[in-house]
Amino acid sequence: MATTAELFEEPFVADEYIERLVWRTPGGGSRGGPEAFDPKRLLEEFVSHIQELQIMDERIQRKVEKLEQQCQKEAKEFAKKVQELQKSNQVAFQHFQELDEHISYVATKVCHLGDQLEGVNTPRQRAVEAQKLMKYFNEFLDGELKSDVFTNSEKIKEAADIIQKLHLIAQELPFDRFSEVKSKIASKYHDLECQLIQEFTGAQRRGEISRMREVAAVLLHFKGYSHCVDVYIKQCQEGAYLRNDIFEDAAILCQRVNKQVGDIFSNPETVLAKLIQNVFEIKLQSFVKEQLEECRKSDAEQYLKNLYDLYTRTTNLSSKLMEFNLGTDKQTFLSKLIKSIFISYLENYIEVETGYLKSRSAMILQRYYDSKNHQKRSIGTGGIQDLKERIRQRTNLPLGPSIDTHGETFLSQEVVVNLLQETKQAFERCHRLSDPSDLPRNAFRIFTILVEFLCIEHIDYALETGLAGIPSSDSRNANLYFLDVVQQANTIFHLFDKQFNDHLMPLISSSPKLSECLQKKKEIIEQMEMKLDTGIDRTLNCMIGQMKHILAAEQKKTDFKPEDENNVLIQYTNACVKVCAYVRKQVEKIKNSMDGKNVDTVLMELGVRFHRLIYEHLQQYSYSCMGGMLAICDVAEYRKCAKDFKIPMVLHLFDTLHALCNLLVVAPDNLKQVCSGEQLANLDKNILHSFVQLRADYRSARLARHFS
Q1: Rg (CA), the chain
Q2: Considering the entire predicted model, what is its pTM?
Q3: Residue 484's closest CA among 593, 563, 389, 570?
Q4: Domain assignment present for 466
Q5: Scanning 21, 274, 541, 563, which has its CA 20 to 30 A from the CA of 199?
C-alpha cells in the first residue's frame, strides 16, 4: 500500500500513473530493455494493484464518513452557542437603553441646576465687580490711590482694565458735581494709555511678539489703540528702505509684516491695509512726485518714460499685495491708492503723449531731409490740387515741371522704423496709462498722428516727389527711379500694416473706433495705390519711349532690304539686341520692386505695350526675302525676351507676331495655307493683308493674285 501511495503525485494524471506503475514492475519494459517483456507478470501486477486500490478506497471512504459525522455534530453545537449569544446581546441592549435614559435624565437635572447656579452667581459676580469699582472710585474721590493694582507696575494690565471701566462710568456722571474726579480718572486713563504704548514700542524693538500681543489686546478697548497701530507701522518701516528700488523694498516690508501682524493684532487685515495705505500715500507718492516733477516741463520724453515705468511698477506692486488679506474689496482699495498717486499726471497724459509724438515725429523727418540737403516742397491741397490729380489720372500727363531727384526716393526704412518705434511705445503707454473708457479714443489719436507723419508727410510726399520726377515719355536716356519708390513704399506699408494689427487692434477691437480706424486705413491705402498706379503707368510709358528712341536710332531701312541679298552675315539687328537688353533690365527691376500679383499685373501691361511697339515698328518697313528672314530672327529674339516675363498672354502675343512675320518670306503659292494655319486662322484678314503688303514683291501681279 505504501508503494501504491507513492505512485500518486499531484496533479494526478491517469496515463502518467499507469506509466509509472509499468516501469516499476519487473518485466514491464519494452522488448529492447534490460529485462524481457513479460505480459503475464504485468497482468498479475495490475490485478494485485487493483485490489490494493479497492482496499485503499474503502479505508478512505470510512474516514470521510467519520469526518462528516464529526462536522455535523460540531455545527449543531456552534448553532446552539450562537443562539445563546443572541439572547445575551438582547439583554445587554435593553440594559444599555435603560442606562441611556437614566443618563439623559441626570444630564437634564445637571443643566437645570447649572442654570440656577449661574442665575445666582452672575448677579453676585456683578455685585462683587461693582463693589471693587466703587472702592477704586472712592480712592479717586479721596485723591489718593492706595491699591496695589495702581502702584505696582507689573499689574498694569489689571489697572488698565479697571481704569477703562471707571472711565466709561465717569462719562455718565454729571460734570458739575464730579468734575474733579472725572479729571483724575481721565488723567490716569491717559497715563496708563501712554505707558501701554511705550510698553508696546519697547516690546516691538526687542522683538517680543507675545508681549506685543498682550499689550495690543489691552489697548484694543482704549481710544489710543489707533495710535498703537500707528507706532507699529512707523517702527516697521525703520530701516526698510535701504535698496535703490523702493518698490521692491515695499513688497518685502509688506510680506514681512503680513507674516507677523496676525500674531499681534486681533484685526490683522485692518492693520496691514493701514500699513499699505501709509506706504502708498507717503513713501511712494513722494518718490513719484520727485521723479516726475523735475522733468515734467523740461523733458517730455523722459517724463513719459518715467510715468510709464513708475505706473507699471506701482501696479505690479499692487498685484503682489493682492495675495494678502486686506478686507472684503481689496481690488477697489488698491486701485484708489494708485489713483490718488497718479491722478494729477493721468488727467492730461494723452495731451502730453500726442504733443511729444508730433514733435518727435516732425524732428525725425526733418533730420532725415536735412541729411539729404533737401528742402521739402509744399504739396498743394484743396480744389486746384484735386483738379490736377483728376486730370493726371485721366490723361496720364505730368502737370508741372519735372523734378530731377538724382535717384533719391526720399523714403527711408530707418526713418520708418524710428516712427513706428515711437508710435509702438506710445501705444504701450496708452494701454497702460489710459482709463479703460478713454483707451479707444486715445489710441485713435495716436494712430492719426502716425498716419499724418508716416503716411502723408513721408510716404505720400515721396510718391508726389517721385511722380514729379518721372520724365516725359519722349525723354532720351531717362533714369527711372519710381520703381525704387514703389519697392520701398511696399516694404514700408507692410511694416505699417503689421503695427496696425499687432499694437492698435487690441486696443480698439471692442469699440466703435475700430470701424473708424479701418476706414481711415482703407482711405490711406486707396490714396497711395492710386498714386502708385499712376506712377507705374507713366514709368511704363517712359520705358516704351526709351525703346522707341533705341529703335529709331539703331534700326535702318537697309536692315530689312539689304542691297546685297547674298551677303547678310548677322543673325539679328543691332536695334533688336539693344531693345532686348533694355527690356530684360527693366523686367528684372520690376520683379525686384514688387511682390505677389502686382508683379504679374505690371509685367503683363509692359508686355502688351512692348508687343504693340514692336508690331507698329515692323509696320514701318518694306521687306525683301532676306530682310523678312532677319525680321523673323528679330521677332524670335523678342519672343525669347518675352519668355522672361513668364506671362502666358504676352508669350502668346509674340508667338502670333512671329507667325505673322512668316508671311514676309513664305512663297506666294503657300500664302493661303499659312494664313489658315492654327496661329493665324483667327486673326482679322486686314491684319494679315497689312503684313503681306510689307513684302517688297507685293506689287507683283502673281503675289496679289495669290492673296486676293
Answers
A1: 56
A2: 0.69
A3: 593
A4: no
A5: 274
